[in-house]
Design brief:
The protein has 49 residues and is mostly helical. The protein contains two helices and no strands.
Length: 49
C-alpha cells in the first residue's frame, strides 16, 4: 500500500472515527430499540393473554 494512501486512511480514520462511532452507536441503538420496544410492547401482550 502506498504511503500516501496509508497517511490519508489514517488521517480520515482517526479524525472521523469518534464522530462516526457516536453516530453509528446512536443510529443502531435507535434502530434496534424502537422495533424491539414496539414488538415487546405490542406483540407480547396478545399471545400472553
Amino acid at each position: 500500500m502506498p504511503p500516501s494512501r496509508t497517511a490519508i486512511a489514517a488521517h480520515f480514520g482517526l479524525a472521523n472515527f469518534p464522530v462516526a462511532y457516536c453516530g453509528l452507536k446512536i443510529i443502531t441503538s435507535l434502530a434496534l430499540r424502537f422495533p424491539d420496544f414496539q414488538r415487546s410492547h405490542w406483540s407480547e401482550p396478545e399471545p400472553n393473554r
